[in-house]
Write a structure and sequence with these properties.
It comes from Cellulosimicrobium sp. ES-005. This is PKD domain-containing protein. Keywords: Signal. This protein is of the alpha+beta class and 307 residues long. The protein folds into two domains: 144 residues, no CATH class; 139 residues, Immunoglobulin-like. It contains four helices and 21 strands. The strands form six sheets. Strands 1, 2, 7, 8 and 9 form a five-stranded antiparallel beta sheet that branches. Strands 14, 15, 16, 19 and 20 form a five-stranded antiparallel beta sheet that branches. Strands 4-3-5 form a three-stranded antiparallel beta sheet, with no helix packed on it.
């Protein structure tokens, strides 16, 4: 993500204040960034905070980290746009990233250098709080830089994509039965087939828009008469080119045909081009309308059959 050098620092300050609800003095007080962290520590903080963001999203978006033992929150984390500040005529770059440049300093853009298949995360800031017995929260530090802006790619979302793939709603494969009128005959093949297709589902993982693609891979047909399911990678076809069928050997008032489809998955960050495989599979189940199985018997008659 590139932050434009022309953006006014007060606009960034307003964004921060809107997110935090702090006064201008609180937002800037003690705003000097902490010393640069090594990359491993930055990465660990980044991953811990994205997990926090995911968990907090389910709790109304609260950004506060509970203190040890489940006590009141003592730290708050926020990702916000940030700047490197220049002194005077941009001859001297001041260290670190800050959300607002002090008076007399000029902001310059920051680009973490993400590839076309990555999304940029804004720099991560932390503020420390104390909480009184009455529940009043008071900031004891300004917003301190925890990690520079970073790039998030498919490898960072793989675990989330796997979990989402198992829980997203994939439309079950439709079932087509021939003959089509709710009945069939003993000792005559009953044709079944499906017409599935790839499905692309939109979701959000750790706040990042993502597309998950489901592709049908195999089918298990249970014909409802106690025989073992028929498993195939073939979706079948209509008569006379049918490839999947079942022959009932006993009449029945009602049987119900069930199809279980196994799907493989891939995902990509929305707007990128590279699909990444999802570990594991998902299944859907379809059930056809009840089917009656008749037994046809032949007998001789003396009269001619009508035309």
């Amino acid at each position: 993500m590139t932050i434009s050098p022309s953006a006014h620092p007060w606009a960034i300050g307003a964004t921060l204040l809107l997110l935090t609800g702090l006064t201008p003095v609180q937002a800037y007080a003690g705003g000097t960034p902490s010393p640069d962290l090594d990359l491993d520590t930055q990465f660990q903080n980044d991953r811990a905070t994205t997990r926090l963001e995911r968990e907090n999203a389910a709790n109304g978006g609260a950004e506060y980290v509970p203190a040890a033992g489940g006590g009141p929150a003592s730290e708050a984390y926020r990702r916000v746009p940030a700047y490197r500040c220049y002194d005077g005529d941009h001859a001297t770059t001041l260290p670190g990233l800050v959300p607002v440049c002090p008076d007399g300093q000029s902001p310059a853009g920051f680009d973490p250098g993400c590839t076309g298949d990555e999304v940029a995360l804004e720099p991560l800031f932390r503020q420390t709080w104390t909480t009184t017995d009455e529940g009043t929260r008071t900031a004891v530090s300004g917003w301190e830089l925890v990690a520079d802006g970073s790039c998030l790619g498919a490898v960072d979302l793989a675990g989330e994509a796997e979990a989402a793939f198992r829980t997203l709603t994939i439309a079950p494969s439709p079932i087509v039965v021939q003959p089509p009128d709710g009945w069939t005959l003993v000792n005559v093949p009953t044709i079944t087939y499906t017409q599935p297709g790839e499905q692309t589902l939109d979701t959000t993982l750790l706040g990042i828009p993502v597309q998950i693609r489901a592709t049908p891979r195999s089918y298990a047909w249970d014909y409802g008469d106690g025989t073992p399911p028929v498993s195939t990678t073939d979706p079948g076809a209509a008569y006379p080119h049918h490839t999947v069928a079942h022959t009932y050997d006993q009449p029945a008032e009602q049987v119900q045909i069930t199809l279980t489809t196994t799907w493989s998955g891939q995902f990509r960050i929305t707007g990128t081009t590279t699909w990444t495989d999802v570990t594991g599979t998902a299944t859907t189940t379809s059930t056809a309308d009840p089917l009656r199985v008749y037994e046809a018997r032949s007998r001789l008659v003396t009269d001619n059959l009508p035309d």
